[in-house]
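TICKET: design request
STATUS: open
ATTACHED STRUCTURE:
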């Protein structure tokens, strides 16, 4: 980030920065707005907050956009990708986290449209922005959608925190998943009121359509 800031200053350019929800730490059970205190309790969350501070201290023209977990074409490191990819190959799959807990997942094209709209507005710079997904959804609802759309009948294994801990003994990426597993138990849900008031309508895509398009893209 220091290098990015250096180049931005040198060429007098603005920065539009895609960020996640890690810096917020734990949610409060409600939709959180941009003024919600950032109190990260994880290594990843603390790093994200440090990156934001570097940009703020630089006094360059920039803004941060906080997004929920992505899913959709190109989102290959997301929780739903690990679930949907085997389904696209008609193989058994895993669902990470409690199937009953409702979370947000934002469709990649929706996130792209939102950040482009912000980048084109002078009002966006010097601010933080929260972009929520279409709605919250549970794992059970996602599984029901997939089955109704594809007639999928293979086994679905629910991966809990204990299983992640065991996998983490052998896999570095799984150790990182364990650190962020709280998001499957205490989801952070974003409030997009500021964007709607200043920029306009938030781009949204139904989960039914987004999941179907994602599955089609994974088969290509």
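STATUS: resolved
RESOLUTION: sequence designed for all positions
ATTACHED SEQUENCE:
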């Amino acid at each position: 980030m220091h290098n990015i800031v250096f180049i931005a200053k040198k060429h007098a350019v603005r920065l539009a920065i895609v960020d996640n929800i890690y810096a917020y730490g734990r949610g409060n059970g409600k939709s959180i707005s941009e003024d919600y205190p950032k109190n990260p309790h994880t290594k990843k969350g603390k790093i994200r907050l440090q990156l934001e501070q570097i940009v703020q201290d630089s006094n360059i023209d920039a803004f941060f956009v906080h997004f929920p977990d992505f899913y959709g074409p190109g989102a290959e490191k997301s929780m739903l990708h690990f679930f949907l990819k085997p389904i696209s190959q008609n193989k058994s799959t895993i669902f990470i986290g409690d199937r009953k807990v409702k979370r947000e997942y934002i469709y990649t094209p929706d996130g792209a449209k939102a950040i482009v709209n912000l980048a084109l507005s002078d009002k966006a710079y010097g601010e933080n922005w929260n972009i929520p997904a279409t709605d919250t959804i549970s794992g059970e609802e996602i599984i029901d959608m997939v089955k109704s759309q594809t007639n999928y009948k293979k086994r679905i294994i629910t991966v809990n925190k204990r299983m992640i801990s065991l996998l983490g003994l052998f896999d570095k990426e799984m150790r990182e998943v364990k650190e962020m597993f709280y998001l499957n138990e205490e989801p952070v849900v974003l409030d997009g009121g500021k964007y709607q008031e200043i920029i306009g309508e938030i781009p949204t895509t139904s989960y039914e359509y987004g999941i179907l398009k994602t599955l089609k893209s994974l088969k290509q």
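CLOSING REMARK: The CA atoms of residues 62 and 159 lie 38 Å apart. The first strand starts at residue 15 and ends at 19.
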